[in-house]
Amino acid sequence: MLSSEDLERFYFQYQTEAVPLGMSVQTFCLRNNVPYNIFHKWYKDTRKKIVEVQVDGVPSGPPSESVPSSPSGDPPVKKDSPSPRAVHRHRKPGKVPGALPVRISVELTLSNGLHILQKDLDYPGLYRLIQKLEVLC
Question: Where do Low complexity bias regions lie (predicted)?
């Protein structure tokens, strides 16, 4: 019987090896002797909370969004250009009447088997996580 961890590794292997070749998940299951119905049930059970979204642009801020040039003479940075430092300048979601705070969930599986799961992050928390992960790369 395949464990959830085995199926997680199998899915990662499928994403890294078969998807670039355009192979279907059914064919990949067949070639690796994994019953498709078991994989499909596991996939539905573990991925049912994932909802596909489309993001257009970056969060908007106050009307005057050009950052003045620095003393070193660097050109001004517009608010529309994403940068790691821009995360800290966004308005706090709680300051907008009726707005719900944005919470972020991140799940990473690396080829060496390392599995990272962080839930209930805000933008600064996500930024700190990315900074810590950059050290590993």
Answer: 56-72
